[in-house]
């Protein structure tokens, strides 16, 4: 019996599948990283907008979307939408009103 031939056949069947799985995981990680970067940028923009805002109380929103066209064995696209909300409250103005705003 030639066991070496059996091992080569098994490796020829399993190795391409293993490589596709590893490449798919790398692609998913790259997509997730780019989505997190976009979400972080939206949060940073909302924070900068709040710092520049002069209103007493204001609700702000921002959104982003990440879409990546995939190739290889999965011929589709991955997409993720993100909506963020922030509230701007000027405590100094609120204290100066001495509760008149709340009544």
Task: Describe it.
This protein is an alpha+beta fold and 103 residues long. 55% of the residues lie in helices and 25% in strands. The protein has two helices and two strands, in the order αββα. The longest helix is centred in the N-terminal third of the chain and has 50 residues, at 3-52. It is rod-shaped, with a radius of gyration of 26 Å. The mean pLDDT is 83.
Shape: rod-shaped
Strand content: 25-35%
Strand order of the largest sheet: 1-2
Q: N- to C-terminal separation?
A: 92 Å
The tally of helices reads 2
Instruction: Say how many strands there are.
Output: 2
Content-based structural category: alpha+beta
- This entry's quaternary arrangement is single chain
Helix content class: 55-70%
- On the 0 to 100 scale, the average pLDDT is 83
List the helices and strands and how they pair.
Layout: H1 3-52, E1 57-69, E2 77-89, H2 91-97
Antiparallel strand pairs: 1-2
A few lines on this structure:
The protein has 103 residues and is of the alpha+beta class.
What are the salient characteristics of this protein?
103 residues, 25% strand, 2 helices, single chain
């Amino acid at each position: 019996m030639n066991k070496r031939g059996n091992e080569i056949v098994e490796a020829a069947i399993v190795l391409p599948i293993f490589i596709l799985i590893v490449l798919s995981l790398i692609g998913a990680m790259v997509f997730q990283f780019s989505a997190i970067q976009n979400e972080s940028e939206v949060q940073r923009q909302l924070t900068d907008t709040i710092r520049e805002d002069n209103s007493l109380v204001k609700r702000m929103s921002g959104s982003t979307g990440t879409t990546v066209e995939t190739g290889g064995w999965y011929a589709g696209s991955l997409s993720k939408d993100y909506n963020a909300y922030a509230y701007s409250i000027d405590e100094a103005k609120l204290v100066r009103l001495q509760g008149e705003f709340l009544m």
